[in-house]
Amino acid sequence: MVMVGTDLVTSEQCFELCADQPGLYPTAGIHPHDASDSTESAREAIEAMCRRDACVAVGETGLDYFKEYSPREAQLESFHWHLALARELDKPVIVHCRDAHEDTARAIGEYPGVRGVMHCYTMGPDELPPYLAAGLCISFSGVVTYAKNDANRAAAREVPSESLLVETDCPFLAPQGHRGKRNEPALVRRVVEQLSTVRGTSFEETAHLTSANADTLFALSRQDAP
What we know:
Layout: E1 2-3, H1 8-18, E2 25-26, H2 40-50, E3 58-64, H3 72-89, E4 93-98, H4 101-109, E5 116-118, H5 129-133, E6 137-140, H6 150-158, E7 164-166, H7 188-199, H8 203-218, H9 220-224
Parallel strand pairs: 1-2, 3-4, 4-5, 5-6, 6-7
């Protein structure tokens, strides 16, 4: 499992949880909700964590214009900082996007060569092109199982096999049948089952594919090497 940091405290906790635990991998970043509250010293500490060999990605970062807990200007500045750092370190960036598609795609386009994933992709097929053109992976969560989310399932059909990932976003966004309850990593199985149905593949094929893609993007096997 990739344990995703969203501010200084949670990023530090991710590294503590993952220390000497095979199969757990930390990231460090500042969520757009916290963009306006992050201090220079916090950003320096985040950068130091991102530079550590154990860190498999930069972020979570991105833009959230739905709740807009931080002003858009602060979110954009923080997002650009993360994108520049990810490209410098040649590590993937974990991108959050909610009601901010145009600005998210524009910012990513300003950093050619950046690698990463559109985390918890909730949009439809029409929004996919700029992210796929940038070489980003597309990660689906429990949202793809929701009865009224045909657009998200349509997007899941169109993502190239080599760009497909799955996640839980726990403790949020539990899949259909568990909505309103605390999400947990085990429920990622429901996401894989839904993607298999949508894409006309077997559960085993989808599970193997998404695991291999995660391994490639985050260099997990290299982390496990003696």
